[in-house]
Amino acid sequence: MSAADAWERTDGTSYPTGYWAEELAAPHDKFVGAGFEVDFASPGGVLQPVDAHSADPAVAGEDCGRYVEHAEKALREFGPLLALTDVDIDDYVAVVLPGGHGPVVDLFQDADLGRLLTAADREGKLIGAVCHGPAALLSAVDSDGKWLFAGREMTAFTDEEEQLFGTAEGAPWLLASRLRELGAKHSGGPAYQAHTTRDGNLFTGQNPASSGPLADAMIAALS
Q: Which family does it belong to (predicted)?
């Protein structure tokens, strides 16, 4: 997960951000329910705050309270997050990248995450990313600057959804457009409706509603 709590805008203002509760809680709940052990990690092991919008029923829906409660309980019981520098990909069968706007602030250029994703992909381990989480995939570049996931099928929070959410204007860059510019085969479904894709070991979800279906697809593949 990201460690960012603010997203700097092109007009110089700072937009508060954090993890999106459903995107962390729904996959965690499903993976633990399927018998997997889950670790949390971030740059420097910093605990990111919850995105306040994901705790607002008017924005995130009436069920958001249970996602917030589950996420906070999971993070509290886990204890200090692992630092990405200390993660050994050989200890894991899958990597899941939740959203909130944080990944477009730090994870998209995090060299430690890039190293982990490169190793995970090389070894055929499952990689999942939802909403703004696919921004973190941009960290996986080789010594020549070539993006590991260029040419792969994926989805992410669409430009339309960013506009509807009110965060497109002033954004340093829009995620779906950036992914396409760098060579991803990006597809999008209807705004805020569940939409997931799979390309080999890469699983992606478009938005918060895609979080549970993304986890279901990954668990089915692991089984």
A: Belongs to the peptidase C56 family. HSP31-like subfamily.
Q: φ and ψ at 42, to 5 degrees?
A: -155, 170
Kindly state which CATH superfamily the domain 14-222 is placed in. Class I glutamine amidotransferase (GATase) domain (3.40.50.880)
Q: Do 22 and 54 form a contact (C-beta atoms < 8 A)?
A: yes
pLDDT confidence of residue 78: 84
Largest CA distance in the chain: 48
Q: What is the pLDDT of residues 105-126, one digit of tens each?
A: 999 999 999 999 999 999 999 9
* pLDDT value of residue 148: 97
What do you get for the CA distance between the two ends of the chain, in Å?
24
Distance CA 31, CA 22 (A): 14
The mean predicted confidence, pLDDT, of the chain is 97
Sign of the alpha-carbon torsion through 8, 154, 203, 127: negative
What values do phi and psi take at 133, rounded to 5? -55, -35
DSSP character at residue 123: T
DSSP 6: E
Tell me the pLDDT tens digit for each residue of 54-82.
999 999 999 999 999 999 999 999 878 99
Neighbour tally for 211: CB within 10 Å: 32
Q: Which amino acid is at 178?
A: R
Angle of helix 21-33 versus helix 211-222 axis, rounded to 10: 30
What is the residue type of 11? D
